[in-house]
């Protein structure tokens, strides 16, 4: 049989072509698998963008030296609880995850744990130091607290108690479940709603010099909205008359006695504890002793847990048994207050004096703001 080059080429060329296709296909498949592997690895390092993380607009703690002048004071007890306050959201999420990990280490999870409605709530006030107090309390092994502000009793009440319960961390018998939402103290409907949930709920209010608090409140807002009017123009209804504008929320919040009257319609004074935002800075261990006693807890969080940071101007947390570096609150602490017209500051002080005096009488404690 005669050999045909044509027939030979028909057999050889297709075979070579198929081999080339297979080679290219293998390379592409390898690249595709490698890309999937890289994507999976990257996704595992990205924070979980769920309701529980992205919607965390947590109040951060504030610290302020009462003795320093208002014009140059430092906003060191800075609560970030406004809906538009997203400045260091990822830092907050990482801090939240760390706090949850720390709590998990302090008491091992078991099948007897369950989610419970809070037996104690930090109800206020904004810019008072609620974040600092919550972080201090989370060092206690008998406390389980949700870090994000639920805003259940003021914004999400229509979602029901079961929705609220699901937000809480699991706790075992003998552990106390807590949450904090600083806007509760000034929201009219909240006292009745908390009473309807449980008339035995323990309530904690962190208060601060109302003038400093108002300036701190304004400073936070201005950091997000630089074009807002001046503090002076917002404070006074009429500059010439010098009348204080009580419709401005930054002024309203500091009228502590007025808000307290509403709470006392539902809860006896023994169920409310008023914590000094200033003392949380100057004597955190002493103030924490009062809080732990009020909650019926052992005095576990003591002076051993605090390390004063002179650069930041407020105490940082540490584990007394470990050698790890003290954990300080968020880097947003330390906003410098704007220089405020001293005359406006004095008018505001005069305005608050009768409210402060009444508040001292009602609580039986002189906070020394005047």
Automatic annotation (TrEMBL):
First-listed, main subcellular location of the protein, grouped into a coarse class: membrane
Annotated residues for binding of 3'-phosphoadenylyl sulfate: 127-131, 208, 216, 333-337
Residue positions of the active site: 127 (for sulfotransferase activity)
Ranges annotated as spanning the membrane: 21-37
Name assigned to this protein: Sulfotransferase
Disulfide bonds: 316-328
Topology class, membrane: Single-pass type II membrane protein
EC number assigned by the record: 2.8.2.-
Keywords: Disulfide bond, Glycoprotein, Golgi apparatus, Membrane, Signal-anchor, Transferase, Transmembrane, Transmembrane helix
Pfam family name, one: Sulfotransfer_1
GO molecular-function terms, A-Z: [heparan sulfate]-glucosamine 3-sulfotransferase activity
Lineage: Eukaryota, Metazoa, Chordata, Craniata, Vertebrata
Entry-linked InterPro entries: NST/OST, P-loop_NTPase, Sulfotransferase_dom
Any single Gene Ontology cellular-component annotation: Golgi membrane
Domain Sulfotransferase per the UniProt entry, residue ranges: 118-353
Subcellular location: Endomembrane system; Golgi apparatus membrane
């Amino acid at each position: 049989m005669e050999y045909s080059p044509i027939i030979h080429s028909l057999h050889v060329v297709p075979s070579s072509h198929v081999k080339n296709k297979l080679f290219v296909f293998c390379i592409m498949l390898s690249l595709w698998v490698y890309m999937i592997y890289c994507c999976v690895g990257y996704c595992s390092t990205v924070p979980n963008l769920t309701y529980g993380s992205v919607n965390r607009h947590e109040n951060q703690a504030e610290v302020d030296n009462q003795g320093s002048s208002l014009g140059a004071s430092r906003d060191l007890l800075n609560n970030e609880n406004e809906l538009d306050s997203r400045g260091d959201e990822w830092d907050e999420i990482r801090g939240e995850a760390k706090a949850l990990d720390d709590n998990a280490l302090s008491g091992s999870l078991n099948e007897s744990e369950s989610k419970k409605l809070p037996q104690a709530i930090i109800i206020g006030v904004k810019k008072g130091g609620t974040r600092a107090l919550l972080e201090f309390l989370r060092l206690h092994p008998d406390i389980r607290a949700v870090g994000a502000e639920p805003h259940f009793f003021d914004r999400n009440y229509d979602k029901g108690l079961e929705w609220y319960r699901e937000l809480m961390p699991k706790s075992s018998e003998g552990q106390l479940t807590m949450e904090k939402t600083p806007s509760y103290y000034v929201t009219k409907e909240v006292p009745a709603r908390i009473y309807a949930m449980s008339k035995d709920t323990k309530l904690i209010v962190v208060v601060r010099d109302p003038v400093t608090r108002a300036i701190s409140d304004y400073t936070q807002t201005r950091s997000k909205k630089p074009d807002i009017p001046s503090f002076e123009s917002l404070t006074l209804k009429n500059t010439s008359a010098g009348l204080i504008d009580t419709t401005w929320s930054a002024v309203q919040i500091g009228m502590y006695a007025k808000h307290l009257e509403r709470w006392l319609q539902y809860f006896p004074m023994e169920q409310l504890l008023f914590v000094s935002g200033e003392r949380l800075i100057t004597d955190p261990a002493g103030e924490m002793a009062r809080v732990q006693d009020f909650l019926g807890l052992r005095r576990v969080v003591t002076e051993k847990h605090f390390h004063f940071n002179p650069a930041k101007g407020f105490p940082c947390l540490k584990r007394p048994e470990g050698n790890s570096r003290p954990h300080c609150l968020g880097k947003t602490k330390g906003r410098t207050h704007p220089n405020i017209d001293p005359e406006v500051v004095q008018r505001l002080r005069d305005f608050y004096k009768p409210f402060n005096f009444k508040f001292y009488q009602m609580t039986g404690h002189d906070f020394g703001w005047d």
